[in-house]
Design brief:
Blueprint (H helix, E strand, L loop, with lengths): L3 E6 L1 H4 L7 H8 L5 E6 L5 H11 L12 E5 L19 H18 L4 E5 L6 H9 L12 H18 L3 E2 L1 H5 L5 H4 L9 H17 L28
Parallel strand pairs: 1-2, 1-3, 3-4, 4-5
Helix pairs in contact: 2-9, 3-4, 4-6
Length: about 240
């Protein structure tokens, strides 16, 4: 049975199977070796994700087999400012951490052998958020998210990962190491361009390899065509 990789998160996860997306990249990389299962919920924060978690995971695992790994990628919506346009998405920092612990606890209870990889919220480019929310770049307007707030939630996510001893991807810091990340990696100050998706894809591949999930260690499912004897093709399938 092929192992499964479950991707759980908000819109950046839901959109990850789009052209150039990081989830699509994983499905392509592990073709014939693992199935990538998408469970992205656009606009959700950890409070809502925790509420619907059992329903969201229906069918995510194969019968009798825990997924090999699950990514937990929330925080971009939790970090929405409590006094701005998307205030209903805001989750206080302490509750965000508690919700992350509870989500991880659910997975450990139901899928004890599954590796859990936490991903921090990404950085925010505020001028693009103003343009996306209001249709203009009037500097007098306030963004509904800030990079400073996202950074605080990223630090909180990493603290939970350290506490639970889980691998974590600090995409907030990593993405800002790239030149012109504000427009090269982000399409609207929050969601990823193909270049931004590539940054996260590479980080996920590295974390998966660190826990033993890699091209080199996963067997291919069913015989490869060049291993099939042309004189007796059916022998390969016995």
């Amino acid at each position: 049975m092929r192992p499964r990789l479950v991707l759980f998160g908000d819109s950046i996860t839901e959109m990850s199977f789009a052209d150039g997306g990081w989830g699509a990249g994983l499905a392509d990389r592990f073709a014939r070796q693992a199935d990538v299962v998408l469970r992205g919920l656009s606009g959700y924060n950890t409070r809502w994700a925790l509420k619907v978690l059992p329903r969201a995971m229906e069918g995510a695992a194969a019968a009798g087999a825990d997924p090999a790994a699950v990514t937990v990628f929330f925080g971009a919506n939790d970090a929405a400012l409590p006094d701005q346009k998307q205030a209903h998405q805001h989750v206080p920092l302490g509750e965000y951490q508690s919700n992350l612990r509870a989500i991880c606890g659910y997975f450990k209870e139901h899928w004890p052998s599954t590796a859990i990889i936490l991903i921090t919220p990404p950085p925010i480019y505020e001028p693009a958020r103003i343009l996306d929310m209001y249709g203009d770049d009037d500097p007098s307007r306030q963004p509904e998210r800030t990079n400073e707030a996202a950074g605080a939630y990223a630090q909180a996510c990493m603290a939970v990962a350290k506490e639970l001893d889980y691998p974590v991807i600090d995409i907030w810091t990593k993405m800002q190491e790239f030149p012109d990340w504000q427009t090269a990696a982000l399409s609207d100050g929050l969601h990823f361009t193909p270049a931004g998706n590539k940054i996260l894809f590479n980080e996920v591949v590295k974390r998966l390899a660190s826990i033993g999930i890699s091209l080199e260690k996963l067997p291919s499912d069913l015989p490869l065509f060049h291993d099939i004897d042309p004189k007796d093709p059916m022998k390969a399938f016995d």
